[in-house]
Amino acid sequence: DNRYAAGIQNITHARCAEEPSCRTDRSATERLKTERIVSLKMFLTDAPKLEAIAVAAEFLERHRTEGPAAHFFGDLVGEAFIWSTSATSPELAAYVAAGLDRLGRVPLHLSARRRIFWQMWECLTEADRNAFKAKVLNRKAVCE
Prior knowledge:
Elements: H1 2-18, H2 28-46, H3 49-62, H4 76-86, H5 89-103, H6 110-123, H7 126-143
Helix pairs in contact: 2-3
């Protein structure tokens, strides 16, 4: 029946008018861009968690920064600061974790190790600090 087909077309048109990707006052390039963004959001929301993480990690890996440059006669701390402010959270976490792992195998003065620990301590919330202290005290009690 033609009335049924016309009703479906009206519903589809009304729904499409609500979607930014269907608006006709936008260029084809803008609509395609919006459709891709919507599709990506849907994928990241609906896909199995590990698949979504793999896709996001691949994207971040392709768009990562190079990290701080090593300078023999430059300001390494300044370069590291500039790099760290432009790094993504996953990049920062990966480099910090790798650096901390390596610190156990390289000679580093105790004051430098304490400074690094203090900087990490300052990043913790009060609740996280209390949880850390409780865990350390619990381990100490078990070892005695």
